[in-house]
Amino acid sequence: MKLIVGLGNPGKEYENTRHNIGFNILDKYLRNNNLTLDKEKFNGKYTKTSINNEDVIFLEPQTYMNLSGDSVRKIMDFYKIKTDEVLIIQDDLDMEIGKIKLKENSSSGGHNGIKDIEEKLGTNNIKRLKIGISNNKMMDTKDYVLGKISKEEKETLEKTYEICLNIIDDFFIMNFDLLMGKYNKR
């Protein structure tokens, strides 16, 4: 069983903010595959489906970013999902807008949602799809990540989202090392 987690903050006020890139990508993937987050439990919204004859859960934690690990841990425990079957989709301040990087077994890089997931799971050996949101050093980090995506950023991110949808599809059929090799070259 696989678990795909899009990170973000719940609520209208956080829609289309840089910190909600994970939610945005997951929502787009679900729409493209005629799926919806039709269940609420484990401090999250999720759906369970089958892809390539394997059970897959798509989850958006509703705990706010800094407590994302609560939701991830609960759903993993309930469905007995192994850590190596999880892919977390997150924003990344240290990469330019729209850049993509697949990582495994690395530090949180200061991302509070990832820090909490690592703490709750007891490991940093987590597969992640990181999407660059750049960083504006002239602004407070919190204000920047919770700021709305600009029109220019949105245009860049639309292309990135399409690649991310392909990455999710490939995650179901490829070894993660091969997946990193295929997409990290871009």
List keywords for this structure.
Rossmann fold; alpha/beta; 7 strands; 186 residues
Explained architecture:
The chain is globular and about 45 Å long. A seven-stranded mixed β-sheet has the order 2-3-4-1-5-7-6, sandwiched between helices. Helix content is 37%, strand content 22%. Strand 3 and strand 4 (54-61) form a beta hairpin. It has one domain (2-183): 3-Layer(aba) Sandwich (Rossmann fold), CATH 3.40.50. The chain contains six helices and seven strands. By secondary structure, it is of the alpha/beta class. The mean pLDDT is 96. It has helices at residues 21-32, 68-79, 112-121, 141-145, 151-171, 176-183; strands spanning 2-6, 39-41, 44-51, 54-61, 86-92, 100-103, 127-132.
Q: Which value, in Å, is the CA radius of gyration?
A: 15 Å
Estimate nothing, just give the exact number of structural domains: 1
**How would you write the strand order of the largest sheet?**
2-3-4-1-5-7-6
Spans where pLDDT lies below 50 across 5 or more residues: none
The averaged pLDDT comes out at 96
Named CATH topology: Rossmann fold
The number of helical runs is 6
The separation of the N and C termini measures 29 Å
For the biggest sheet, the summary is: 7 strands, mixed
User: What is the CATH class?
Assistant: Alpha Beta
The tally of beta strands, per DSSP, is 7
Question: Into which percentage range does the β-strand content fall?
Answer: 15-25%
- Structural class comes to alpha/beta
Summarize the amount of helix as a percent range.
25-40%
Order of helices and strands: EHEEEHEEHEHHH
- CATH level 4 superfamily: Peptidyl-tRNA hydrolase
Overall geometric form: globular
Instruction: Identify the CATH architecture.
Output: 3-Layer(aba) Sandwich
